[in-house]
Amino acid sequence: MVLRLPVPDRQALILTEYQGLTQKELSLRLGISFSGAKSRVQRAREKLRQMLLDCCHFELDRRGHVINYQSRCQRCSEDTCCLEEAQPLIQIGREQVCPFPSSVS
Q1: Domain count, the chain
Q2: By Cβ atoms counted within 10 A, which residue in 35, 42, 64, 96 is the most buried?
Q3: Does the residue 102 lie in any domain?
């Protein structure tokens, strides 16, 4: 689902959540203000959250951790809802970056 986000949001989320950049490092890398980087990451997280909530119903424990889920759409029950299109690299500035480190599957 991450790869379905708009490019700026996808870049922000991948670089911070998967590649470990801080939001300050993200702002420097993308050439945007620190507050702009923070907003972009928060917007990406919210869009991804909404995509997940549209797709599935989550049961949470009292701490807010997912303990169970049920799909809401036919595609989820067929295991095709969350399949990503083949997009091995994303463009960030002048370089192409693998969106996920090899340790993440």
Answers
A1: 1
A2: 42
A3: no
Question: Is pTM, for the whole model, over 0.70?
Answer: no
Nearest partner of 7 among 87, 102, 101, 105, judged by Cα: 87
Full domain range(s) for residue 67: 2-97
Q: Which pLDDT tens digits describe the chain residue by residue (105 residues)?
A: 888 899 999 999 999 999 999 999 999 999 999 999 999 999 999 999 898 888 888 888 999 888 988 887 766 655 555 554 444 455 555 555 555 444 443
Give the DSSP H or E segment for 38. Answer: helix 34-55
Cα–Cα distance measured from residue 34 to residue 37, given in angstroms and rounded to the nearest whole number: 5
- Tokens 């029950």, residue located: 77
Q: Tokens at residue 63, please?
A: 């701490």
Q: Is 68 exposed, middle or buried (0-12, 13-18, 19+ CB in 10 A)?
A: exposed
Across-strand partners of 42? none
